[in-house]
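Researcher: Going back to the complex we discussed earlier. I've cleaned up the inputs and rechecked each line, so this should be the final set. Can you rerun the prediction on the complete assembly and write out the structure?
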Amino acid sequence: MPSAKKISRALQALALLGPAAVGCCHTNVSAERCVLAGTVGGAVPRLYRQASWRSQRLPAIKAPLCTSEARPIEDECESVDDLSALLGTGFACGPAGQAIQHVCPSFGDRVKETQAVVNDPPCGAKACPNRQLEVREESGSMTRILFYDDPSCHSGAPDAKCPNAAHACYYRVLAISTELAGEKT
Amino acid sequence: MQLAEVEAWFAARGLPFAWRQERPGEPAILRPPPGTAIPTGNVRVGVIVPDVHLGWGNDVFRFNNPSRERRLERFLELLAELRDELGTSAFNAVQLGDYFDFWRAPGFTAVQARSMILAQYPTLIQLGVSLPLRHCIGNHDAQFVHAANRPPLLDAEIVRTIGTSAVVCFHGHDNVTLQALNVDALFETIGLNLLNLVNSAPVVGAVTSWLQRVGDGTFEESWVHDSASLPWDAAQVQGPAGWVAPWVSRSSAVEYGAALRGIELCLRQRVQLAFVGHSHRPGISWCPVASRRVPLIDVGSWTYGRAEFAVVCADGVGLARLI
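Model: Rerun complete. Updated structure for the full complex:
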């Protein structure tokens, strides 16, 4: 005797009702981008993620963040740090356990990690070493992003089912530089 | 008012509702941490209406009952009575998007489709406008992004708040950016309109509508009349500290956390509670926002004969369905 679930599935297939399912749509992808922005008076650039890049009005970051004292909402520790956000490797802990939280679009093999050009961690000797990414554009232009560790955001796994959501190191953007490729004049 | 008082208030006026039973003996009610209240400011009662899908003909809202709208009209009339009793500033009604279903109204333009829906549900829509029912924008009524496509005075936005910015509502189809609401769904629109035409045909329409309900995948036992909505799996990780609920694992909860963080940075205020629709499967879940856990409540739908909604009071949030 087939199970009720199988009967339901068979009816679904017979009725060719695939389009009737909810959630059958593709949203416009034009908003899927992250923005690295420096601001007037800011010493450190800010990474605006997919859900907030259109409103680039957050206050400047005047110095690297190392302590949790009097931290405003925009500088809270995120589920996924800036480095993992750009690499697309950051886990967050949800009700079903851990899952990758996509907060920036995928850059594929255009992004790679390189040796950091500045080695001194701004948050002191106890901080994890600086790291660096390079993102190459099709035009040949290349953006170099230097990250520092914010020890105040270090944390253990939020749940036993979310081991990869721990933050032994927590990387924020420290500096950016762009090499603009062009044609010979 | 407390949740139990709202329940008694509706029952006394002849439109009783029951709290959803998430698991045996566990009503789908969210309670805030002891000594705290749901942060709705001056709003004493909030009512959240999920996806409705008003279309043309025998749409998924009517579902083989041409007088189905009378029940929602009665519900909105009672909400207006409750608003008058509490005072306008102490009452708030939000609809989570997919109020109109432009994918099930055969117009060649959004305005033509809107006109067909308005012609089918004039009283219902007028009751919502006058309440006012404050709408979010869903994927099936993404045309509401443009004010010219909305019915006169219909109030629609991407994100709504209830009382304070700590309680937010959005539809939930764009769980990445909350900016990409325009939906590229030409084939789905053609397909669902064809299906809706078949469903609206005499005799055969009742059968195909029922088959569509069976195939919808959002019912616990879809072949049984008046079956409950399909529950989500129980949560593997407990919800925010101090909050009490029969937690479930709504799909995309981790992604919603990123979207809610975007709302927070836009409003520059921490969100403490969020409501979504879209799935047609109610349940009380949570999502990771920065390093916090925020309750995420899916309210369900009014499709295929269901009449689900949420009630928000200082003492908690309840998922309900009309009996």
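Model: Worth noting: Chain A has one domain: 30-179.
Researcher: Good, that matches what I expected from the previous run.
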